[in-house]
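Quick log. Single chain, no ligands specified.
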Amino acid sequence: YEGLKQYENIAIELGNNPSKYNEIRRKLIDTALQRNPMHPYWDAPRYVKNLESGLIQAWEGFLAGKEPDVIEVVESEETARGTYDDVLISTPSDRKTHDEL
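-> predicted structure:
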């Protein structure tokens, strides 16, 4: 990664090249809509399981008196399979919808 200049160059290229912009846009939309399992980029329940695993490792290390160290989260086979619609349906979010806000 070359920093802000690279980011700026990419933005200019996408602004000047509608076909490349549309290609990248379509890829992002396709990954966001991927179901059964969800694409890892958008799989929030999977992310939360892995974050919880890392936090538990950190807490257990703290309780054991260990010095802070790198935490490596290795997904369980179940988590690595990803999130499917049936899981989302059986555990609905308690988040308020846009209309309720």
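The radius of gyration is 19 Å.
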